[in-house]
Amino acid sequence: MPKTPEEIIRDEIRARTAYHVPDAGGMVKLDAMENPYRLPPELCSAIAARVASAALNRYPDPGARELKARLRAAMQIPPGMELVLGNGSDELIQMLALAVAKPGATVLGVEPSFVMFRMLATCAGMGYAGVTLNQDFTLDLARLRAAIEQYQPALIFIAYPNNPTGNLFDASAVERVIEAAPGIVVVDEAYHAFAGASFMPRLGEFPNLLVMRTASKLGLAGLRLGLLAGPSAWLQHVDKVRLPYNVNVLTQLVAAEVLQHMDVLEAQATVIRTERARLLTELRRLRGVEAYVSDANFIMFRVAKADQAFSGLKQRGVLIKNLNGTHPLLADCLRVTVGTPGENAQFLRALAASLDS
Ligand code: PMP
Hints:
The chain is built from 14 helices and 13 strands. By secondary structure, the protein is of the alpha/beta class. It has a 7-stranded mixed β-sheet, with helices on both faces. It is globular and about 55 Å long. The protein starts with a helix and ends with a helix. It binds 4'-deoxy-4'-aminopyridoxal-5'-phosphate.
């Protein structure tokens, strides 16, 4: 008799629930921080021409040389720094965890933050320590220092701006964490396009600092492309964990083409930032809504009854993210992605109606 899954599958995996992606069919989709804008037709034609001539019979360039050169220019990677690419930045988080997963090693993150830090640390067989943020979602340096002392984490993740709270942490507090850390600190700049602050220019200033970005929030979520930049002393090892062809031919070609038109993506990000300001003002006008300032392409807000507001929105065809129950600091909080002006208006109408009912 073969053994049962209970006997074979690791305890920490069986204890997990699968990462749930809700079905958004037919809904106004404001749950996943996607850019609501498509690419202009000329750029789509250029992409189509590249794809038509792609050698799909061949494996991709394992070094992704053209794409890396485009990324270096588009993201202003400091000279002398290495790059590792991932199938989304999720995969980079996984590679980092796999590379440092010695028995007993710990990943440290702040809470609430991006859930994949904990999930992928657990999947790699590592311990995870979550350090609660202050009530106003700023870094609690005293608690962070104590946790760093206690756990000696091999890897620390700081999302900058943070998801789901939307704020940028104080840069000098992040520096204190980098200085106190015995291991790697990854500053995850997934929302950089909407933030106007970055640790990218500071790579090399701290030997243990790595900066992660993604093309997803910029408007290329469907391509699945993330990048990790930093000193080769670390990245040469992370790269050994990478599967040789993790960034496929089409992603390499299409991203290399689009990155030559960063102005298009940046113009979209500017529109999203303007809409974010308008959406914040409108949210704050609604009675019983406390909306938080955001440096990202989403806004977190608190209502009296989040579960009721969330299902009311869903009934009215608008999907956002319900954060209630995910962390004590997020009681009755919801998170909405900044969409097009039309989508945002539809969301605001549906929210007002859901709060009234
Ligand atoms: N980091 C943060 C902070 C995020 O919020 C997300 C996506 N929600 C990611 C990384 C992962 O993005 P992707 O895998 O699409 O690059």
